[in-house]
Amino acid sequence: MTDTDNKSIGYYLRTHIREYGMVVALVAILAFFQVLTDGIMLKPVNLTNLFLQNSYIIIMAVGMLLVIVGGHIDLSVGSVVGFVGALAAVMIVNWDLPTVFVIPACLVVGAIIGAAQGYWVAYWRIPSFIVTLAGMLVFKGLTLALLGGASVGPFPSEFQAMSSGFLPDFFGGLIEGRFNVFSMTIGVVLAALLPILGLRSRAKQAKFAAVDEPMAFFVAKHAVAGVAILYVTYLLSTYRGLPNILIIMALLIAIFTFITNSTTLGRRIYALGGNEKAAKLSGINTKRLTFFTFANMGMLAALAGLVFAARLNTATPKAGLAFELDVIAAVFIGGASMSGGVGKVIGAVVGALIMGVMNNGMSIIGVGIDWQQVIKGLVLLAAVIFDVYNKNKA
Amino acid sequence: MDTILEMKNITKTFPGVKALDDVSIKVERGEIHALCGENGAGKSTLMKVLSGVYPHGTYEGDILYDGGVQEFKDIRDSEERGIIIIHQELALVPLLSIAENIFLGNEIAENGIVNWPATFARTGELLKKVGLKENPATLVTNIGVGKQQLVEIAKALSKKVKLLILDEPTASLQENDSQKLLDLLLEFKAQGITSILISHKLNEINRVADRITIIRDGKSISTLDARAGQITEDDIVKDMVGRDMAHRYPERTPNISSEKLMEVRNWSATHPLHPERKVVDNVSIDVAAGEVVGIAGLMGAGRTELAMSIFGKSYGTDISGEVLIKGKPVDVSTVEKAIASGLAYVTEDRKEMGLILEESITTNITLANLGGVSERGVLNDGAERSVAEDYRQKINIRTPNVGQKVVNLSGGNQQKVVLSKWLFAAPEVLILDEPTRGIDVGAKYEIYTIINQLAADGKGVIMISSEMPELLGMCDRIYVMNEGEIKGQLAAKDASQEAIMRMILKA
């Protein structure tokens, strides 16, 4: 469209600084640690670990984003992670129930836990901070009760596969150390598919009105993203291939990006968080939506609990401790607003990755856990200050 | 008699609006001076200039008070000189005690440590002065509005008041509480305290005021002396409303259907917090296709409450009554159902309740009818943009781009976005609550044109407005509402501001 020519790339970047600023920050942090760790950061094995270590945070950040966009908060997710892990361990190890039954059952339990908390928030208007603080205590206690204070494990291999398995190479068998052709193929297809989908949506938009994003910027964005995808999959393929958990995560991110961007459900959640009264007076069932975001959060917390238990190969009473803080921090670093109505799924994911890369990088170079906490705290504060500063300037 | 206050040639401009235009007022020491004018005439703005809410330098003109020109920087400044203003919305902290409220920010304390015995003793004296029999330790939330008003006055007295300004003090009071308050004013007068009383209630003004200054459209019109002889309400009303009404409203030839499009029968609702207060009391109204029906009344008459309780029970409890559309009873128990029945309600407060300010024009316009731009729950981006684009052109929303955040638009354009939202929901009947509040004259004209177009398209329009000329200029029929009840209705040809005012005051 001709209209796009008038506006410079600089102008577009300035108005979208928050969206791309975080990605740039992530890349900068990665590069920083790549240098500081003498190249260990982006070694295939470390990259694989990075995804495995942060998978459960990312899974929950996606759900937390909806809760926070809706104007609430969920402090109970860490405890739910521990509780569901314990529940899975008891069902599988102590009761010998089959994995194929336990996994869906645990997800349902998670959804019920979320729904139970969402009920008080949505229909009784009890502040979510209080309801989920109560939930946090309750499920921490129930975890202890369920495990009797001890760890339960180990899990059968099919359960572990969820978290520590890799996509088999259908093109060449599963041999460690060999290049995983199938995984690489997925990367190539994905890198090709994204610009095609992007172009299609641009064309659709252009039919009705001018496209905001300058073409040059669109090309550059997809070029960078494509190279990044190819490079990451290449690295992973030289190790053991794409981890199963990465596939699960990618699917969740895709689904929730779609829900938030393209469905009436997503739109209504943003409206609810943006101005609840206006949303209500526009015929939106705000209570049911709030209820849904919590039920969804509970289910994702349960998934994270299963993933975490599978990764440790045991359920411990300490599992999930303080996870909620990492998850909430990730969402806010990713640009969500405390007052609701603002935030993107991809932002929350990038926020979680920033935290993850910093954890990982600082551990490699030997920064103690004490200073790691201090630095992470300051990064969270800086990200939010950056947000507020940008908003005031505009 | 000497003059305690003279405000000379005060002019105050806000971006795009001249709120006060060369206003002058003279108040004599020891009198009760009433300030009259319609909503939006500039009374409150004038008092804010006087009390330093709008500091010296933000207005033109001089304030002569107590013998010299004053340049108040803020409220504290004017309070030190004995000017105390009691605002329409009470500024009390509900969960603090009466004593704590009275001395809030002005505590009887030494080195930051409050002297409670002295505070309570002094509060007791003040309460006696205003005739309030309450324990100083009682929480403000536990006493009624009338008594809260007295607490505000006691608070003013605690500050050595010379000039007391009351902004519609009786607006939310019951009759006997109002009388008590007015008696109190007369008592103060006997003690030598000067008062400025802003009020809509002409009978009250007649009872207590010595002189009356009338403001209209930001200009001082006249000062009447009530001591010389009896001033009639008609004298006041005439000066309040006499303005040129030609060409402020677009021409329209009504084409009103003989059948009723919507009927509301015996509608009642009570206040959500005070179950004994019936805010809407047995109201029956109707509107035909192609008709613009107005609801006139003062603030707090129950008009918004009526509209909101009809629209999905969004206000009040214990709602009873019946809504019929095209003769058939419809279910309006939730907003969703009300919309489905063909109703739309454009809220009085567009920022608080109408718009999602941080979202785009597009998002706001489609919000009440997402089904219209989606298929099986998946939004069609393109369709959405084209809908927004369509309304942008049709009703002239001035913006380069429908992706623009609503918060960046002017009041008039924001109002057009809200209207677009409801037009896209394709209702049969639109209830417009103060559709032109806070927007400039040009945008008002455009909104009027849209309203006329709606009527011409066979919709029913119910228009709630506090600006009487607007109702007279736009409506085919006007209901007059006061204290939750419909006091009567007037056909366009019989309606005048005087007639409406009389109907309101009849009670």
From TrEMBL, chain A:
Molecular functions (GO terms): transmembrane transporter activity
Compartment(s) of residence: Cell membrane
Lineage top rank: taxon: Bacteria
Membrane topology: Multi-pass membrane protein
Keywords assigned: Cell inner membrane, Cell membrane, Membrane, Sugar transport, Transmembrane, Transmembrane helix, Transport
Zinc keyword on record: no
InterPro entries: ABC_transp_permease
Keyword Transport assigned: yes
Major place of residence: membrane
UniProt GO cellular component terms: plasma membrane
Transmembrane segments: 20-37, 49-68, 75-95, 101-122, 129-150, 170-194, 215-236, 242-260, 289-309, 321-338, 371-389
NCBIfam families cross-referenced by the UniProt entry: GguB
Protein's job: Part of the binding-protein-dependent transport system for D-xylose. Probably responsible for the translocation of the substrate across the membrane.
Protein name per the record: Xylose transport system permease protein XylH
Source organism (scientific name): Thalassospira profundimaris
Lineage: Bacteria, Pseudomonadati, Pseudomonadota, Alphaproteobacteria, Rhodospirillales
Automatic annotation (TrEMBL), chain B:
Pfam families hit by this protein: ABC_tran
UniProt protein name: ABC transporter ATP-binding protein
Keyword Transport: yes
Keywords assigned by UniProt, alphabetized: ATP-binding, Cell membrane, Membrane, Nucleotide-binding, Repeat, Sugar transport, Translocase, Transport
Entry GO CC: plasma membrane
Highest taxon above the source species: Bacteria
Topological category with respect to the lipid bilayer: Peripheral membrane protein
Subcellular location: Cell membrane
PROSITE patterns registered for this protein in UniProt: ABC_TRANSPORTER_1, ABC_TRANSPORTER_2
Lineage: Bacteria, Pseudomonadati, Pseudomonadota, Alphaproteobacteria, Rhodospirillales
ABC transporter domain span: 5-242, 262-503
GO molecular function, one term: ATP hydrolysis activity
InterPro entries in the cross-refs: AAA+_ATPase, ABC_carbohydrate_import_ATPase, ABC_transporter-like_ATP-bd, ABC_transporter-like_CS, L-arabinose_ABC_transporter, P-loop_NTPase
Keyword Ubl conjugation attached: no
Source organism of the structure: Thalassospira profundimaris
